[in-house]
Specification:
Blueprint: H1 2-34, H2 40-47, H3 52-64, H4 68-81, H5 86-98, H6 102-115, H7 120-132, H8 136-149, H9 154-166, H10 168-171, H11 175-179, H12 185-195, H13 199-210, H14 218-230, H15 234-243, H16 247-251, E1 272-274, E2 282-288, E3 296-302, E4 312-314
Helix pairs in contact: 1-2, 2-3, 3-4, 4-5, 5-6, 5-7, 7-8, 12-14, 14-15
Length: 334
């Protein structure tokens, strides 16, 4: 009996050892496949024919070749061998959708979503599924997850979101995002302000944001003001800028805003813009001094190469007419 038990134990150890070796070799071959060795996928499956990732990859490759029946067999086996992998499930769901079995396809993608709620690859496939199924509102929500978890995707996807915003019949699908902005919203908003050719679409986007319980941020407001100024809607831009000022800032309103330099440079709207180049030797700041009206004054410092000074400016909103700018200057350390 002891001999039989030992033989059985050795046999079990050998089987387990071979399984470990075969799985490791299959993983190694898949690594080579990902590195560009197209023949390594067959080698991976030769080592472990039930390797779920290898089966999923083989199924995907066969789908591209039009061998649907054989592809589905591999994909189904991949799902059985690793139920936690949502990718082969998504590929099978797409086949059901193409066959007109929409309800089955929807159930499969909802399962995939529960398995991988933040995986950008799966969320991208989910967005495609719902878009092709005619449910743009659901597609947008999954697209938002991609943009939130994979910032590298934003450059390619912002034009798509902007197209949705520019069409009246699709714009409302962005309302849930405008009312509860995700982490990528501000950068998209700035992209839209720079690139949209339709100012009315931007006004509609801003209107959706204003209906949110989350206030429009200074970043968004300044981006919109810049676009209004660029398009020549100066009065609209000025009123929007004024509406965002706090009490001390409103008290500084005059022909020249904050002419006493009591407030920090805003670099936005109709306030002071101070933008000397780095390493130019020019410093534009504010500081306390004597014999001034108020507590602070403008401070300019020049060191290094002589150059024309044009690094402090302010956009004025005034009626046509003749105006004179006056002030007091004190020169130090000449």
């Amino acid at each position: 009996f002891r001999i039989v038990w030992r033989i059985g134990l050795v046999a079990t150890a050998l089987v387990l050892g071979w399984k470990v070796v075969s799985v490791n070799m299959a993983d190694h071959m898949l690594g080579r496949y990902y590195d560009g060795d197209g023949e390594a996928l067959e080698l991976a499956m030769a080592w472990d024919e039930n390797h779920p990732k290898a089966q999923a990859l083989q199924g995907s490759r066969l789908l591209k070749r039009g061998q649907k029946e054989e592809a589905e067999a591999y994909l189904a086996s991949a799902v059985v061998n690793n139920p936690a992998d949502a990718w082969p499930l998504m590929l099978l769901a797409d086949q059901r959708r193409q066959e007109g079995k929409q309800e089955i396809a929807d159930q499969m993608v909802e399962t995939a979503d529960r398995l991988r709620p933040v995986d950008p690859q799966i969320q991208r496939l989910l967005a495609v599924h719902w878009y092709k199924s005619g449910q743009l509102d659901k597609a947008i929500l999954h697209l938002s997850r991609v943009l939130s978890t994979s910032p590298g995707e934003r450059k390619d996807m912002y034009p798509i979101v902007l197209q949705i915003a520019e069409h009246t019949e699709t714009r409302q699908t962005l309302r849930p995002l405008a009312e509860d902005p995700p982490v990528w919203w501000e950068s998209f908003f700035a992209y839209a302000m720079r690139n949209s050719k339709n100012i009315d679409s931007l006004r509609a986007l801003v209107a959706m944001r204003k209906n949110s319980r989350i206030p429009v941020s200074d970043y968004e407001r300044n981006a919109y003001i810049s676009r209004l100024k660029k398009d020549g809607y100066i009065a609209e831009a000025y009123l929007l800028w004024v509406s965002g000022l706090d009490k001390p800032e409103r008290e500084a309103l005059a022909y020249l805003y904050d002419g006493n330099f009591e407030l920090d440079f805003s670099n936005s709207g109709f306030g002071w813009y101070a933008n000397p180049p780095k390493r130019s030797g020019i410093v534009v700041s504010r500081g306390k001094t004597y014999d001034v009206s108020g507590e602070r004054a403008l401070y300019l410092s020049f060191r290094g190469k002589r150059q024309r000074f044009n690094h402090l400016r302010q956009n004025l909103f005034l009626n046509p007419g003749n105006y004179q700018l006056t002030g007091r200057v004190r020169v130090d350390k000449l």
